[in-house]
Amino acid sequence: MAEIRVENLRKAFGEFVAVQDSSFTVENGEFLALLGPSGCGKTTTLRMIAGLELPTGGTIRLGGEDVTYKRASERDIAFVFQLFALYPHMNVRKNIGFPLLAQGVAKAEIKARVEETARLLQIDHILDRPVSGLAGGDRQRVALGRAIVRRPMCFLMDEPLGTLDAEFREVMVRELRELHNRIHATTVYVTHDQIEAMAMADKIAVMNHGVIEQFGTPQEIYDRPASMYVADFIGSPPMNFIRFTGGLARGARMARIGAAEVAMPELRADVPPGPLALGVRPEHVRFSDASPLRGAIYGSEYLGTNQIVTVETEGGLVRARLAAEQSYRIGEPVGLTFKSDRLSLFDAGSGRVIPSALHEGALRQEARHG
Amino acid sequence: MSSANTAHSVVEPSARSKRIAATLVILYAVITMIPLVWIFLTSIKSPPDSISYPPKILFTPSLEGYCNLFTTRTRQTPEYIASLPPPEGMCDAVTRERNMVIAGPSNFLPRFTNSLIIAFGSTFLAVGFGTLAAYGFSRFKVPLADDLLFFILSTRMMPPIAVAIPIYLMYRQLGLSDTALGMMLLYTAVNVSLAVWLLKGFIDEIPREYEEAAMIDGYSRLQAFRKVVLPQATTGIAATAIFCLIFAWNEYAFASLLTSGSAQTAPPFIPTIIGEGGQDWPAVAAGTTIFLVPILVFTILLRKQLLRGITFGAVRK
């Protein structure tokens, strides 16, 4: 196992820049999710780490060794493909043993290690079956087995759960995380599914248009989004943006939105006058008749344990995650209050967050909200 | 007509349409088989039976055609034949009945061997080069790939015989006239374009991920090609090989132009049998029958791949 250090990584296909000057480090034993929509450069980044694509610039270090221009076969890595890429002309046993064969491992040892891996993944009963008849989950496990068996420095996975149906995907998310907890392999996992990323990863890198928008723990990404893009991409429903115009001074604790004064974490920078957006997670919105921030009920979605109520305000639609019991009439006027210490203020022009007291101190202690 | 009332599936053909299809297929097969059966029957007729009119369907089989195919004979007086020791073997006896004796082996066997060497050799070369080229075109960014592929295809746009004269002159200069190597090179050149195009289609269908997986598993690209791509391209390779082999095996025009002696193949040789001592149709038919065997065996061995090969792309795995 080893750390992966990526510095100023860049990849251009002709005019199109797929990855722009990305830098990040995956610590030894850490699980990193590269998260983003399709075409954001996450898969290209992964393929460069694997050696399947050569970077246009930058360096990649595996365990301290510069492997930027080394061949895939010379890097000690394992790769799990989206479509598994199990060799169709080999059975399960041969598929799993194939990487060991390349390393010239003795036959008896290959057999032992394949069987050990199969037991770990609970596929020892299908070892001698052809791969063509396997169900999606078993294919997935065989693909994982082929990765694990060689005990590589790190695992790279390209949306390995993308083709599984939703129900089974949850099972595999759990299995993958448990597997990671057991073998502590440095892992880079590409996905467009925020739930997968949040559930499995130690760190998440949110990518957009070839740029890493934010790199951090799932909690950081969720609670302290670095940009409106991240805030919007993570969370279901995503963060609300209440748009307003104004300028604020360093140390300000109030934002004037229309007639209302809204309390927020103390700003750590001056904000020149311009378009701004106040970011509020739906679970941090409450209704209060006394609040000067007014809106009207626009609609509601019942989710069982709670409901998402949408309110139309001057600053746009605001979604609130509320207890499921109360019912609301469409058009009913309501007042809104926000959990003031959890708000993010964004520069709506650049989309970047404005530093505030929110970005200081430990997160876990703050995370005591219901 | 109970079948008209039963519910029928949309995807599964009805029993009646299956019967109609089967009848048509059998009819077609019979029509295609008639010339082959006729050639085989002629090959086991005696020379008089072979030219009798109306044609004989029922006759006493004779292996005279095969005897004549493999031998050369000289006409002798009955007195001379009577003075000879008793005939050794069936062919000797049959020949003496026609007032002839066997003078020696004919050229059929060496010509047939030439055909085998040239056809299989050129098929091997064409498919080998074709696979490598197709893999290259399929996987790498080849500069001007489309133009190159079109150029390769364009070599098939005129009948090969259109360039017969330049090739004839070239071969004479290079000393390749009437050599097995020359014929092999020629057939390879003609077939390689077909092979590249057919195989590129097959290799395009093999996902790149397999090789990428193999390369990550620690294999070089060449090893990945050999261990992962080739096994999966066998269908395409087999189908391509049959097409190439059929062309090279049956090719007549170049063979008759460029070969006359030691490198002559069976197709130009077989018709020459007819001139040796009258209209010897059974010998010609025997030669043709034997000539059909290798291609028949090869096709039957690879028929599964051939079938999948000619319908490739129609159904995704």
TrEMBL record, chain A:
Xref: PROSITE patterns: ABC_TRANSPORTER_1, ABC_TRANSPORTER_2
Domain named ABC transporter: which ranges?
4-234
Q: Name one Pfam family in it.
A: TOBE_2
Q: Which GO terms describe its molecular function?
A: ATP binding
In which domain of life is the source organism classified?
Answer: Bacteria
Q: Which residues form a coiled coil?
A: none
Q: Which UniProt keywords apply?
A: ATP-binding, Cell membrane, Membrane, Nucleotide-binding, Sugar transport, Translocase, Transport
Q: Which family does it belong to?
A: Belongs to the ABC transporter superfamily.
| PANTHER family named in the record | MALTODEXTRIN IMPORT ATP-BINDING PROTEIN MSMX (PTHR43875), TREHALOSE IMPORT ATP-BINDING PROTEIN SUGC (PTHR43875:SF15)
Name under which the protein is recorded: Multiple sugar transport system ATP-binding protein
Species in which this protein is naturally found: Ancylobacter polymorphus
Automatic annotation (TrEMBL), chain B:
What keyword terms does UniProt attach to this protein? Cell membrane, Membrane, Sugar transport, Transmembrane, Transmembrane helix, Transport
Q: Which SUPFAM superfamilies match?
A: MetI-like
| A Pfam family it matches | BPD_transp_1
Q: How does it sit in the membrane?
A: Multi-pass membrane protein
For this UniProt entry, what is the primary localization, expressed as one broad class? membrane
**UniProt subcellular location:** Cell membrane
Transmembrane regions listed in the UniProt entry: 20-41, 116-136, 148-169, 181-199, 228-249, 281-302
Locate the ABC transmembrane type-1 domain: which residues?
112-302
InterPro entries to which the protein is assigned, alphabetical: BP-dep_ABC_trans_perm, MetI-like, MetI-like_sf
The entry's family comment says:
Belongs to the binding-protein-dependent transport system permease family.
- Report the protein name in the record: Multiple sugar transport system permease protein
Q: Report the source organism.
A: Ancylobacter polymorphus
Phylogenetic placement of the source organism:
Bacteria, Pseudomonadati, Pseudomonadota, Alphaproteobacteria, Hyphomicrobiales
